[in-house]
Amino acid sequence: MQDTPFPYFPYRAIVDHPPVTWPNGARVAVWIIPNVEHFHIERPGPQPDIRNHGRRDYGNRVGLWRLIEVMEKYGVKGTVALNGEIGLHYPRIVEELVRLDWELMGHGLTNSTLLVDLQEEAERATIFETKRIIEQYGLTMQGWLGPGLGETWKTLDLLQQAGCTYVADWVNDDLPYRMNNGLYAIPYSLELNYMPLFNTPSIANDEFLHRICAAFDTLYREGERSGRVMAIALHPYLIGTPARIGILDRALRHISTHDHVWFARGAEIVEAYRTQESGV
Prior knowledge:
Elements: E1 28-36, H1 50-73, E2 79-82, H2 84-89, H3 91-99, E3 103-106, H4 120-135, E4 143-144, H5 155-161, E5 166-167, E6 177-178, E7 184-185, H6 194-197, H7 205-222, E8 228-234, H8 236-239, H9 245-256, E9 261-263, H10 266-274
Parallel strand pairs: 1-2, 1-8, 1-9, 2-3, 4-5, 5-7
Antiparallel strand pairs: 6-7
C-alpha cells in the first residue's frame, strides 16, 4: 500500500476529461448488471436459514426469468455479476445466459463469503475458481464485481493475474479509467442498485423508477458534450417479483425513447473507451 489517498489510480476531474465518443454517436452507454447469486442455506447456522435462502432462490427460480423477458423485449443484453456456484448448482441459468449472448462477470463463488474475510491464497483460489467455472461454459471472464463490492489490498493484482480487463467495485466516476496496474475501473452504482434501496427502510417502487429516469436524463444531457456511462444494478429476487418487474419495463421504455443511447455489455464499454484512451 502506498502512502497516498489514491494508491491504485490518480485523481481525475471529469471536467478536465477530453470528450469521449461512443459508437453511433451515443451520448450514454447504459449497462445493466443483474446480480445472479447463490447463498448457502446452512450459514450462519446452526439452523437452516430458510427465510433468506428462500427469497434469493426465488430470484433464480422465477425472478431472473421475468427480468430476462423484459430485457429481451427491449433488445438489451445484460452483464451478469455471477456467483461461480450458480454454474455448479443452477447450470440451467448459465446455459440460458450463454444462449442470450450475455456477458458473465465474476462475482466470487457465493455471496455467503466476502473476499475481505479471506487470506491471500483463499482469495486467489476464489477468483481463479470463479474464472474456471465461467470459462467451462465457453466464455471469458473479463470483468469482476466483488461480493459486497469488497476487496483486499491484493484483489486488483490477483484479478490482473487472472486475466481480467476491468473491475466494477469502485463507484467513483461516470466514465471508465485506467488503474495503475492496467485494469480498468468501470462505473457501477449504489444509487441505482436495488439491494441497498429495498432493504430497511425500503423506498417506494415509483421512487426507484424516478431515480433511474432522473439519472438517465442528467447523463443524457451531459452526454451531448462528452459521453457518459450509466449502470443499473439489479437483483432478480427483488426486481423480479410481480410487484416490481414493471419498474424495469417502464425504465427501459423511457431510456429506449431516446435516439442516442448505447445498451452495451461491460467489456464492450471498456473496449470502446480503451481504443480512444490515447486522447484522454
